[in-house]
Known about the structure:
Chain A is an alpha+beta fold and 314 residues long.
Amino acid sequence: MTYPFSVAAAAALLVLSVPAGAEAVPVPSPGEIAAAAPAGDWVAIPASDLLVMTLAPDAKGKARRVVIQLMPAPFSQGWIGNIRKLAAAHWWDGAGVYRVQDNYVAQWGDASDEKPLPDDMATVPESDYIARRLFAADDHEAITVVGRDTYAEMATFYRGWPVALHSDFTGASDAWPVHCYGAVGVARNLSPDTGTGAELYAVIGHAPRQLDRNIAVVGRVIEGIEHLSSLPRGSGALGFYGDAAERVPILSVRIASDLPAVDRPVLEYLSTESDSFARYAEARANRRDPFFIAPAGGADICNIPVPVRPVAAR
Amino acid sequence: MTYPFSVAAAAALLVLSVPAGAEAVPVPSPGEIAAAAPAGDWVAIPASDLLVMTLAPDAKGKARRVVIQLMPAPFSQGWIGNIRKLAAAHWWDGAGVYRVQDNYVAQWGDASDEKPLPDDMATVPESDYIARRLFAADDHEAITVVGRDTYAEMATFYRGWPVALHSDFTGASDAWPVHCYGAVGVARNLSPDTGTGAELYAVIGHAPRQLDRNIAVVGRVIEGIEHLSSLPRGSGALGFYGDAAERVPILSVRIASDLPAVDRPVLEYLSTESDSFARYAEARANRRDPFFIAPAGGADICNIPVPVRPVAAR
């Protein structure tokens, strides 16, 4: 199942782009392949699936906006329902980023752990870390780009999201979202606690895949990750800020559809079912653009970030 | 060759640590395993293999020191020889960090590209990106911890360093250093240029393994990576700072053995040939300490960082 037709075809096209005797045409980079994808290969992200976190301006007075895309069903919907309630209640307004651990996570919420939650929060079971039988045995043909994975039988993309898979005895596959750079997860206490969604973190280092199936992944930062990744690291244990004054205040967190239209981020992602994405993924695994002399022959799932871009004003 | 004896034995010990009927004893975390390793499992890092870069103090006046461990032979020694000459010539003093690209690299050197180099710099061939036949066919037993790798036949550790391998037709293996978080590499122009070592970068995001065998890896940051990873991202293309005033001045770069004894960092790493490291690596791949409910069953080579610690004053 490694590199089925769509990817193999794309590779052939790349080779054919330099006909014998012609001047060598530089092979496009993955970014150039994505940029050249037809409009129909891009998928608009609904404003209702975007969480917009506005941090206090930085020391130079520059605005800091972090935009998070929430995961689609069937993943993590119990926690995401809580997150929607917390945003609607303006629960994070006045909270802060209270932990930044190098090569790991930036975490935010209520550092005091005393702020009352809305009273209709769901308690989500650990079984919801995994989507059971997401791919039936005869669906496997529909998986367009797959790769070897060090942490699971394989890794692929599902509706724009990187996921890992294990097959059950019938050949159907369980799937779960993976912790790549920028992934947003739900902090929790010891099992059986699964967290509510009030305390969230974003990955700011090498993919901590050991957290997969141990913590709920609810989304990914698709704009403004630098406002989290470039924060000073906390000097306390696990990167917690030792002094409350070091915390970065959160001015507001809203679902984008609750913002005035003019303030809504308008973004789209490259469909992971498209031929363009298959070519992009193949090029991430085998760089042949001018800088490279030795294509790697593979890429881990977290080294194939799904292209996201702002939609130009129309 | 996956998980040979030393790792399997360690796993058995972990299971045996909870005898039937006894109160469950928490399984140690990877960090706890490393911390409990006997003194003999730690290897002192010679001061002559440490590159100490002192950046200008931060906005609050706090000192910023970055310590880089240089790779041992047979890897990248041509470039490392150049780096030793550049440090001896105080070439980087007054240079700066001029590029910080999110989830990729922080890069430093002479942004003007006009500063004359010492005149005895080596030009290193591309073939030196790889150490040929590092492991003979009958040496393979000596590889203590190996894992599946998405980018090569396998990945392992060699004298404290993560490396990837490909076997040749005799069964001997070529090996090359890999781009993990904190890895330091030699910036270059298009092939056949291989760079001199004057312009260096450190990885500050998910392992960009596509650079392996395409750029020389010369070392890794083992102290102070946060002084690079938390810098503001550059707003120019590829994360270059658009304004020279944004650059972070480098006060000095020295080989530690050229510093007064009192200023030398004294650090040691956990021998990757030790049983302690095998247990540590196994625990990174299968977390059973109290927070975790689902051990991953694997870890990529860059998610098994080699433990490094300061040597306590004696």
